[in-house]
């Protein structure tokens, strides 16, 4: 009896503590966010009035940033400063890098999925992985291993899937789905030496891909809740989306652990994949799992997103596609089945320009946030209080007249060429791969993969949008994903 009463008292005290903690945190959170703000931007955001005029939140932000004298706006209700000003971007990502880490808020959102992986940490843990990963990714044999994987996936999977849909009257292919399958197979082979086989002819459902997708989608949705307390309480009681997230992560972990255990029993010294390479230096299997999972996340949806919007733009700009074919014929000859070599790709400056131009208008990572550590003032004069989320916005930056001139909304690969040679731009004006100390480590690899996939398809097939007039809408998430996919008809060129 006394024991039972004691248990009830403990439970009561436990819930009182949780409730008081929640109330205090919520009050601090609300005070910082100013949910009562009546400025035009906040009112439009809260009432979703912006959606009457714009299809996507990123289009509305672009419009506001374009109008702003400093290229910076505040959304008080979100406690968020958003900037498209290259000087601010350079300041955050390079000059005062230490004052703008990813921060605990970000890492708690993705922490269950990514653990201590490079994407999700700051400080020493980040520095250590960055050094190790950049050594590997700059290694010539790793680069050619990645290239071989992509070439083999194009020949053995991508072409057969396209051919199986070619010329069929009702053969509508979802290009986005195909590119997601392609990049998942490629990045898993590269990271783990594992072939999930998502792009086999039957387009099978891969347990790993489904679990990984669900886990990254539900983790990203945590960022959309009004307060982090909401998802934290749901996680504590294992409810709703948090229950699903836990199950999805559990499955990802089981598969990753099995794979690591399997590899531990093999001689991996001759294996080329990242996991085998990292294994020779790291004994902690949980840390190894975190490292490679970050790579899968980094290299999967980004490439699929970039390829999807590239083909969308090409369909509205057939002259760009013809120019790409013409350039490749000059470099490779006109046999369409041949795939370009690494060296030939380097010679194709127009293709390089077209790919960059496409990501200017449709960057796969549309925005990226940091959390300010100490009170600060940005170069444009904006005051940033400690703890504020500061977001730089590559999507809006690609549409700024101040950076790209009055034709900034036009798709013009020529703007990247000088006397036919590709010219680089200031990375803080084009932070599609981020810039500064945390610039994307897979940038070169991603560009090569995008170019060879796009070029191979352009040379071998004619691709037409099944629904050319539809309005482009993105679904919210870590990477830009086209809502309802991108249905196309395909036709083999040499028939
Ligand atoms: C078109 C394709 C890609 C785009 C647009 C892209 C873009 C980005 C961006 C914006 C970041 C910064 C993210 C952040 O800090 O929040 C990033 C980081 C990173 N990316 Fe990529 N990425 C692409 C492909 C890849 C690929 C294929 C790989 C790996 C094989 C990769 C590996 C990484 C890694 C490891 C980081 C973390 C760097 C660090 O924190 O120091 N990326 N990428």
From TrEMBL:
Transmembrane segments: 6-31
Signal peptide extent: none
Top-level taxon: Eukaryota
UniProt keyword Translocase, yes or no: no
MF-aspect GO terms: heme binding; iron ion binding; monooxygenase activity; oxidoreductase activity, acting on paired donors, with incorporation or reduction of molecular oxygen
Family: Belongs to the cytochrome P450 family.
GO cellular component: membrane
Cofactor(s) the protein needs: heme
InterPro entries named among the record's database cross-references: Cyt_P450, Cyt_P450_E_grp-I, Cyt_P450_sf
Key words, A-Z: Heme, Iron, Membrane, Metal-binding, Oxidoreductase, Transmembrane, Transmembrane helix
Subcellular location as annotated: Membrane
Topology in membrane: Single-pass membrane protein
Binding site for heme: 440
Record keyword Transmembrane present: yes
Name used for this protein in its record: Cytochrome P450
